[in-house]
Amino acid sequence: MSAALVLLLFVLLIVLAFEYINGFHDTANAIATVVSTKVLTPRQALALAAIMNLIGAFFGSEVAKTMISGIVDGKLVDVSVVFILCTMLSAITWNLLTWWFGMPSSSSHALIGSMCGTALAASHMNWHTLIWSRVKIDAKTGAHSMEGIFHKVVIPMISSPVLGILIGFLLMGLIFFLIRHWRPHTVNTVFGRLQILSAGYMGWGHGLADAQKTMGVITLMLLGATKAGTLNDAPAWLGFLKVNSEAIPAWVKLVCAFTMAAGTWAGGWKIIKTLGHKMVKMKPVHGFAAETTAASILFATGAMGMPVSTTHVITTSIMGVGAAKRWGSVKWTLVERIVWAWIFTIPVTAVLAFGFFKLGALF
Fold first, then answer.
1. To 10 degrees, the CA torsion angle through 202, 56, 311, 261?
2. Rounded Cα distance, 20 and 337, in Å
3. Contacts of 263 (CB under 8 A, 6+ apart)
4. What pairing do the DSSP bridges indicate for beta strands 134-137 and 144-147?
5. What is the pTM of this model?
6. For residue 224, what pLDDT is reported?
7. What sections of 101-183 are H helices per DSSP?
8. Which of 34, 52, 66, 148 is most buried, judging by how many CB atoms fall within 10 Å of its CB?
9. Which residue ranges make up each domain of the chain?
10. Side-chain-side CA neighbours of residue 265 (13 Å)
């Protein structure tokens, strides 16, 4: 077995490690509200989230396609195994750092920022390596669509948190209006049951949005390795690693889905405390509104191939619901710290990935 093939297998494990970390880092997105409202115990919530993550990962592939061909121009830079390694090391470093401090940062933006930083390092600061904006024409239907970082990352990065706050606020207001004559016991009983459904919906949306990103990265790496001839001398039992098109192999979907589900089962308790207990004190009705809002946004953006941050969407949905409850019920000083973590994610991971690649080039 050649050294290049051993490196490929090692990096594949690193990518799956990122997927696992993504699972427990972003577990809070799916279960923080249902745990904080005491509708489910932490272990029950984790089990529900893990199962729904697994199911959601098999729905759609538009986000994966964006990760393969909509961020970096493979014609201008060699998306090699080393490229993917540096990208993953940067994203994992940032995820673990923010997890340690209990900050709900975006794994999606960490991955995208890292990929951009590696691309710039590999191309000697050629900014054209990054696909900012371009028109995509469907070969079968002739339909036109826009893709690139501006359309698939920047616009959703700004609009999805705004939608989270706005829709969460409006939905909570509507629910308050509809249940204004209900008894508190009835409200808690009805929405306690409904929140189990909304938590499952949120877990499904998390799997749909986040598992696809790693599927795209693995496919991109294997496609590059196949073209480079790295797999030519591979043993017959590793033949499944050869990828000749941008279509996501079934085994990649399966492995990513189970890895994320396993990470979700591990749980990310520090971030769960931040989202579920520190930012807004919630009851089942608030949890239902926040989860339904966030999962619906993830469903819509996933269908459009936008790698939206699950963290941003659920966090801002909780903000919107909390503001509808009472403006002062939201701990805005904590929100400010969270927003700063969001702002720094892409530039910091880009710098980290750039440094990892340049450091690797010295050896």
1. 100
2. 25
3. 19, 20, 21, 22, 23, 24, 25, 27
4. antiparallel
5. 0.85
6. 87
7. 107-122, 149, 155-178
8. 34
9. 3-356
10. 10
